[in-house]
Backbone:
């Protein structure tokens, strides 16, 4: 994507990335001219295969890694020239479960708040721990907690200094399904309180359930940024599958005008149609089947998932 005018940004953008690149002496180009704006108060899901540049992008925005070219602003603060102000607005929950195993939950979260120069606020910290179902574990040492609880502690640490932007890098990796759903609810509550959420995830279901907008990154470049519902409507496909009474050897000549696919055993015909069209063509197809004497015993429809769309985008099929 081409860089935008560095003097302008969307009025509701809280994170603005312009012409951002990252390359290493080895020749590896982890990011290539990335433009991205995150809207205030949204849940934004950043999807991409391993090595696509997701973690590099987050690390630069959070001030952990230096970009090679371009600029990043967080709520108007340049992350290089005004590092302290920008970093103070950001909370980061990394992939790795890295924290002091011998400290208690309370001491860990309290220390994280102090790192940002915030005055002690035990009421705020208690609220965070209660929201994360950690209050009863506040005096437990980190080493005694389960993996899921440790991940909750990372979130508590990231929220201790009251950030306005929260980055969640694979927040539910290795977490069981029940805990994952609990964390989704917590993220939604954070958004309702005014926190902007940016998450990377391998779980397409996570993005489909939670995100307002979705960005796809591949080989260091932003492939697409779109409202989730719009993306599903524009790129999603619906299919009608008919189980035939008698197998066919090939799609008959009279049906060639329809986008039909015959299964290997000749038992099923699958019709792919446009979800946006005024006329799906199904009624005419069924009439034509009747005219040709092709009977079916069952039919069912299905719709593309976000995973189907993501795979197609990454492969360059859309």
Residues:
């Amino acid at each position: 994507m081409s860089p935008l005018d560095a003097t302008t940004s969307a009025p509701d953008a809280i994170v603005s990335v312009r012409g951002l690149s990252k390359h290493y002496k080895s020749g590896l180009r982890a990011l290539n001219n990335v433009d991205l704006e995150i809207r205030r108060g949204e849940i934004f899901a950043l999807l991409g295969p391993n090595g696509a540049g997701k973690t590099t992008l987050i690390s630069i925005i959070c001030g952990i890694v230096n970009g090679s070219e371009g600029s990043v602003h967080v709520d108007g603060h340049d992350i290089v020239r005004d590092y302290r102000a920008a970093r103070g607005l950001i909370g980061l929950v990394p992939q790795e479960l890295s924290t002091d195993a011998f400290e208690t939950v309370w001491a860990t979260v309290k220390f994280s708040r102090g790192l940002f120069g915030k005055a002690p606020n035990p009421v705020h910290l208690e609220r965070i721990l209660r929201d994360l179902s950690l209050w009863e574990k506040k005096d437990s040492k980190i080493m005694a907690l389960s993996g899921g609880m440790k991940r909750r502690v990372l979130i508590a640490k990231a929220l201790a200094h009251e950030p306005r932007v929260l980055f969640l890098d694979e927040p539910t990796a290795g977490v069981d399904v029940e805990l994952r759903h609990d964390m989704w609810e917590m993220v939604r509550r954070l958004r309702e309180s005014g926190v902007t959420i940016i998450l990377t995830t391998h779980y397409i279901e996570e993005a489909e359930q939670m995100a307002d907008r979705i960005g796809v990154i591949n080989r260091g470049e932003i492939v697409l940024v779109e409202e989730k519902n719009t993306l599903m409507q524009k790129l999603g496909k619906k299919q009608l599958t008919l189980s035939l009474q008698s197998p066919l050897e090939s799609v008959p000549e009279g049906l060639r005008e329809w986008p039909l696919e015959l299964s290997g055993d000749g038992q099923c015909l699958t019709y792919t149609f446009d979800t946006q069209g005024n006329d799906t063509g199904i009624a005419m197809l069924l009439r034509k089947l009747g005219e040709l004497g092709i009977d079916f015993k069952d039919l069912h429809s299905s719709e593309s998932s976000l995973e189907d769309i993501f795979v197609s985008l990454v492969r360059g099929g859309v």
Observations:
- The mean pLDDT is 85.
- The radius of gyration is 25 Å.
- The chain has two domains: 13-232, 236-314.
- The domain at 236-314 is CATH 3.30.70 (Alpha-Beta Plaits).
